[in-house]
Design goal:
This protein has 78 residues and is mainly alpha-helical. It is 51% helix and 8% strand. The chain contains four helices and two strands. It has a two-stranded antiparallel sheet. Helix 2 packs parallel to helix 4. It is globular.
Length: 78
Amino acid sequence: MGAAEAASSPTYGGGSVFVPSGPICELVRRRQLAWGLTDEAMLDLLDWHPTVVDVRGAMLRPTAEKLLRQLAEPRRVS
């Protein structure tokens, strides 16, 4: 699926300010396991401290984009 098709697809937000949070959270968890980080360390690394994450719900598109950019970068070693 190309970017234009994804932009118009209801599954991928269809131009909405919200996107499904489940796939983003799954990717966060996969990176966390690969990098061997605790929950708190991963949240600190991403500078993301939500009170609750409902993977069945939606996430603001800017938040999702920020997380995806951070996950795409090489892991910062402390």
